[in-house]
Amino acid sequence: MAGWIQAQQLQGDALRQMQVLYGQHFPIEVRHYLAQWIESQPWDAIDLDNPQDRAQATQLLEGLVQELQKKAEHQVGEDGFLLKIKLGHYATQLQCSSPAGILVDAMSQKHLQINQTFEELRLVTQDTENELKKLQQTQEYFIIQYQESLRIQAQFAQLAQLSPQERLSRETALQQKQVSLEAWLQREAQTLQQYRVELAEKHQKTLQLLRKQQTIILDDELIQWKRRQQLAGNGGPPEGSLDVLQSCECSGEILNNCCVMEYHQATGTLSAHFRNMSLKRIKRADRRGAESVTEEKFTVLFESQFSVGSNELVFQVKTLSLPVVVIVHGSQDHNATATVLWDNAFAEPGRVPFAVPDKVLWPQLCEALNMKFKAEVQSNRGLTKENLVFLAQKLFNNSSSHLEDYSGLSVSWSQFNRENLPGWNYTFWQWFDGVMEVLKKHHKPHWNDGAILGFVNKQQAHDLLINKPDGTFLLRFSDSEIGGITIAWKFDSPERNLWNLKPFTTRDFSIRSLADRLGDLSYLIYVFPDRPKDEVFSKYYTPVLAKAVDGYVKPQIKQVVPEFVNASADAGGSSATYMDQAPSPAVCPQAPYNMYPQNPDHVLDQDGEFDLDETMDVARHVEELLRRPMDSLDSRLSPPAGLFTSARGSLS
After folding, report:
1. Which of 161, 209, 216, 644 could form a disulfide with 560 if both were Cys (CB 3.0 to 4.6 A apart)?
2. pLDDT tens-digit profile of 372-384?
3. How far is CA 414 from the centre of its chain?
4. 3-97 domain in CATH 3.90.550.10?
5. Residue 526, Cα to own-chain centre: how many angstroms?
6. Distance of alpha carbon 17 from alpha carbon 326, whole angstroms
7. Range with lowest mean pLDDT among 71-80, 205-214, 439-448
8. Where does the record place the SH2 domain (predicted)?
C-alpha cells in the first residue's frame, strides 16, 4: 500500500497526469479502495504474450472483481450507498472485460439488484422513522399549546369577578395572547397536516418497494427455485419452477404421511423425513390413445404450519413435489424415468402442472441427456460431440456426421420413448438408459479411464480398427442388446480380419467382470488406439487365490473364444485344452482326468458374435460338478466348447 500512499502526495501536473492515466485505463476509485490487495499481487510475473500465463492473469482479474464486490457490499449509510452503487458498477465493467467473464453472472446481478432494493428500503424506513419522531414531537408541542389556549379561555370566564379597571387591563393582555396563540395553532395544524401527508407518501413508497421485492423473491425467485428442483431431478445443476397450488382432486391415499419437522442448527433449515410413508391406493385417469401408465404423472402436496414470535404470527405453507410416476413392477422403471426426465427438463417456468411440450429441439435434448448421463454414471466425463452425433444418427436414422445438421431438428415425445427405433424392438430412451445402467453398475472406472469408446456402431468400429495392428480392440455399446457391451478387435485370418464378440450384459458381468474377461483373452493386446491392455485393466483384475480354502481348491471360470484357442495357447505357452486339473496326491493320487481336445464347432455366428449365454450355463454346470467330492468325478465330466475351467494347487 506504500505505493498508493506516495501517489496521494502528488501535486500539480503530476497529480493531473496520474488522474488522466487512471481515467483512461482503470477506475481510480478501485485503485484507492483496493490498494493493499492490488499491491500484494504478482502483476510483474505475468507475461500476457505467453499463453501459459493467461490462465493466471484471468484468475487475478476474477480475484479483483470478487474483492471489489466484497468492498461494495460492506458500504453502509448515505455516503456508502452511492459508493456501493459505483463500486458495483466498476465490478460489472471489469467482469465484462475479462476473457473468462464475458458471460456475466446474471444471478449475481439479480442478487445485487435485490440487495440494492433492500438498502433503499432500509434508508426509506430510517427516513420514515425520523419523520415520524419529528411528527410526534411537533404534535406533542401542539397539544401543549392547545391546552394553553383552553386555559386562556377559562381565564376570560373568571374576569367577571375582578374590578372593572383590573378586568380591562387583564382582558387586553389575554386577548393579545389568545390571538397570537391561535395564529400559531393554525400554522402548526397546517404543518402537522403536511407532515402526515409526507409520512403517508413515504409509507406508500415503502409498500411499493416491498411489493417489488415480493415479486422478485416470492414470485420469480420461487419459480426459479422450483425449476432448480426439476433439473436436480435429472441430476443437473440448479434452475427451477414453483407452481401455483391448484385445488386438484385427490388421486391416492398415503399412509404415515405426517411427521414433525426437525431444525438443523448448523444450516438453519427445517426438514421432514417420512421414513415409513407408503402408497395404499392410487386412482388413475382414463388414458388417451397410445398413452401408457408410465406416462401418467402425479404430484405430492406438502403442507406445513409454523408460528413465529410466541404464536403471534402463524404461517401455513404448501408446495407441490416434482412429477411422480406410480409403477407396480421394476420393468416399468425405464419408461417412468423417461417421463420424469422429459417433464423436469422441458417444463416451462410457472406452468400449470404438469403441462410440458410434446416436441423439443435436438440441442435441448442433448443438454438434458448429457446432464442425466453424468449424474447417473457419477462421472465428469460427459457426452462428447462425437457421442451426440452417434445418438442423433440413431434417433433420426440419419448418416450425417456433422452435429450442426441436427441442430434444427425437433424430437417428439413419441420418438423419445414411445415408438421403437427403426429396425429395433426398443425405444431410443430404453437403449440410452441401458447404457447408463451398465456403466453405473459395472464400468464406471473403465468409462472414467477412457477405456470404453462406447458410442460407436459396427461399421465405425471396422473403420477405426482396419489399419491397426493385430490384437487392437475397442469396447462399444451393442446395437442389438439393451445395456450390452461388445468387443470388436483386429485379427487377420483367412476367414476375416475384424471380429465382434456377442454382447455382454449386466447379468454376464455379475458372473465375471469385464477386466477379467479381457484378461482371459491373451490375443487382445492393445486398447484402441494403442494403449497396452494390461496397463489399462490390470489394476482391475481379480487376484487368483493360490491356497486352498477348507481343503478345497477353488475353480475358476475363464472366457475363451474357440476360434482363438490356438492363439491363446501359443501366447501362454500351454496346450490347447479346455480343462487343466493338477492332481492332488493327498486326496486322490491316481485320479484320472480326461483331456479334451479343441472342439472344431464354431461358437461364433455368421456375424462373428460369440454365444455367451449358452457357454455360461455350461460353465456353471461344470463349476457345480467340481464342487462335488473327487471320487464322484469320472469320465462323465465333459467341459463344453469355448470354456476353460482350471483348478490348480494341492491339498494338505
Report:
1. 644
2. 999 888 888 889 9
3. 26
4. no
5. 36
6. 74
7. 71-80
8. 447-544
